[in-house]
Amino acid sequence: MISIAATSLGSFKILGLQISNIISILLVLILGWKNGILVGTTSGVTIGVVLGIITNSEPILIAAFALSGLIAGILSKFGKIGVIVGFIIGNLLLTYVYNGQLVELIYFKEILIASLALLLIPNKLEINISDLFGKNEYLQEGAIYRLQESDTLEKLNDVSDVIKQMSNTYKEVAATVVDEKEIIDNNREIFLDELQNGVQALKDNILYEDIISEDEVIVKEIFELLNQREKINREELLEIFKNHNSYIVGFDNYETSLKIEKDISNMIKFINDTYKTSKLNFVIQAKVNENNKNISNQLEGVSKAIESIAKDITNEDTLSFEKEKKEIIMVCKQRKIDVLDVEIKKERSGRYIVKIYLNTCDKTKIIDCPTKKIEDILFSILKEKVILQEEKCGMKMEQNICYQTYISKDIYNIQIGIAKTTKEGETVSGDSSIQIKLKDGKYLLALSDGMGSGPNARKSSQIAVKLLGRLLSNGFDKETSIELINNTILANNKKETYATLDTIILDLYAGNIEFIKNGAAPTFVKNKKNVDIIKSIALPTGILNNIDLVVYDRDIEDNDIIVMCTDGIIDSNKEYNNKELWVKDLLENVETENAQKIADIIINEAIDNNYGKAEDDMSIIVIKFIH
Q: Does residue 72 share a domain with residue 12?
């Protein structure tokens, strides 16, 4: 309602700043600061929709407010500064994805003024959404969190639906596929429009009447010639006029002949300049269409992630452990562990994920929580060994609440060895890697090879691995994650630098490996003396708008050894036609099973293949599984 009221100010400005926009931004900042991620996101969507409908703004404005509100809410635990930084990051991110440059969707001057206003608001200010609807509670305290989940679910589904609709809108706009003839026709129309509008400044020109002729025969022929040669000269222009019985001849009068020549020269310059402008506008139009596709993919990915979170919340398994929950709470209280609530979820693999809400929190950390005791309690009740996965603190229902997440202990352990070197003569490697544990207990290891070498190659490979880690950690599925990474590299691709992506996701509880390859070098799987090769023919990320992932699945066996490497390793040996065979032969004959020693042996051999000099950046990751 405040946002609608603010739009009544219209385009009223002070010192070039639009007051309605400042008020709208301030609303999102305040609500995100006081209520966190969900309210930050939904208020961003609501205000974006209001501004979009009333001011007839582009749909991307909704996404800008929604994403900015989302990130502002995520960073709200860092206070006002976190909210401000989050809003700016959201605006910057979507701005860059949308137009490939920093042309603001929401003006930074207005964000700055709204931020200053937020900093002036007292920290004691209380704005709780539930205050608008009363505070009567009819459920026992233990059900508060499940009630919040239902509310959260509804909000998440609403946000997901809005973003999905936005994605479909951009997809429809960008879906039109045109053939070569249509492209030329579209370009011609742009050229003719530009020509007709600009030629009005040359009404005194002797060629004016023929150029603005309604049948447009002459200008269409001019365009056909320009389309072939990019430029038209005096002889070509006069020849076109001559072919249409429009002769331009000189006169004995010197001044008259001079004016005719000047008119011809001016018209040629005007036509050539107009063609350049129309071609630029056509390229911009194509770029906008491409950006629409990218935005559609980005929004669809966000929608899928939110939908996935909603599905996790509604997981039926969370309702089937009431007996165990009550028993855990009772035993914890008997042992003087102040537990408020317990959530239990069991994944398809059989892994337990248990969230323990605690009343021992000082806003930043959990105080005096006996983790080992809780692990023992969970083991005695669930009959499954568990370990602490993470712990977090924050505000819930106007009180400080902390929680710990415990997960079933892995059946397998891993030993990792890493070796790498930079191309001879380069100071920076174009290869990047990442090894992280995901929230569901699985492990992600990824290796990216930026095409070429040096800083540009490194930039592409780092974008690939960092985005992959963040997206998979925050609920995005693997297909969507790779697609978003591809679009991001494509949008940043100024100097034709691309990146391969070699990914494995390890479920050490279920004993499963998932290989995801996108233009990457072969991966080797060694079991005793037998070595299998996993290959991919997909192109690297950042080359194509649509990508084909190659995904493999394999069960883990005790003492399996996985070797991931970049092309620099594979291509170092010139003696083999199938270059990966030299690595296979080496692995079959290597005596040690130590992961780090294997990594060192392979990279040293690759360098020796070129007489002690690395011809390319080289990286290798070796993983050994131990039951």
A: yes
Higher pLDDT, 397 or 535: 535
Secondary element (H or E) of residue 5? helix 2-7
Ranked by mean pLDDT, the top range of 69-78, 178-187, 216-225 is: 216-225
Based on the fold, state whether residues 222 and 96 are members of the same structural domain: no
Q: Which residue range(s) make up the domain with 467?
A: 413-626
Q: Give pLDDT tens digits for 513-538.
A: 999 888 889 999 999 889 999 987 65
466 in the same domain as 537: yes
Q: What is the CA radius of gyration of the chain?
A: 32
β-bridge partners, 518: 501
- Of 80, 102, 136, the residue that ends a domain is 136
In a domain, 481, yes or no: yes
Contacts of 137 (CB under 8 A, 6+ apart): 144
Do the domain assignments include residue 11?
yes
DSSP H or E run through 185: helix 180-198
Look up residue 308 and give its DSSP letter. Answer: H
- The answer on 274 and 192 residing in a single domain is yes
Q: Which residues pair with 413 in a beta bridge?
A: 626
103, 136, 169 - which closes a domain: 136
Alpha helix ranges (H) inside 446-556: 455-473, 478-491
Cα 515 to chain center, whole Å? Answer: 21
Give the Cα separation of 431 and 540 in Å (integer).
Answer: 13
pTM higher than 0.70, yes or no? Answer: no
Q: What is the pLDDT of residues 126-174, one digit of tens each?
A: 655 555 554 444 434 444 444 344 445 555 555 555 555 555 554 554 5
Q: Are residues 310 and 191 in the same domain?
A: yes
Query: Within a 10 A sphere around the Cβ of 564, how many other Cβ atoms?
Result: 26
Contact 398, 360 (CB under 8 A): no
Asked if residue 422 and residue 567 are part of one domain, the reply reads yes
Count the domains in the chain: 4
Residues 441 and 378 in one domain: no
Q: How far apart are CA 184 and CA 178, in angstroms?
A: 10
Compute CA distances 199 → 10, 26, 206, 209, whole Å.
36, 47, 12, 10
Q: Average pLDDT of 582-605?
A: 94
**506 plus 577 within the same structural domain:** yes
Alpha-carbon distance 55 to 35, whole Å? Answer: 27
Backbone angles phi, psi at 293, to 5 degrees: -65, -45
The CA distance from 230 to 273, in Å, is 10
For residues 34 and 125, the answer to whether their CB atoms sit within 8 Å is yes
The CA distance from 176 to 165, in Å, is 18
Say whether pLDDT at 23 is over 60.
yes
Q: Is 142 among the domain residues?
A: no
What digits encode the pLDDT tens for the residues 325-340?
A: 999 999 998 988 888 8
Residue labelled with tokens 């902390």: 402
State the amino acid at position 318 in one-letter form: T
522/263 Cα distance (integer angstroms): 66
**Residue 143 maps to a domain:** no
Exposure class string for 169-205: b at 16+ Cβ within 10 A, else e:
bbbeebeeeeeeeeeeeebbebbbebbeeebeebeeb
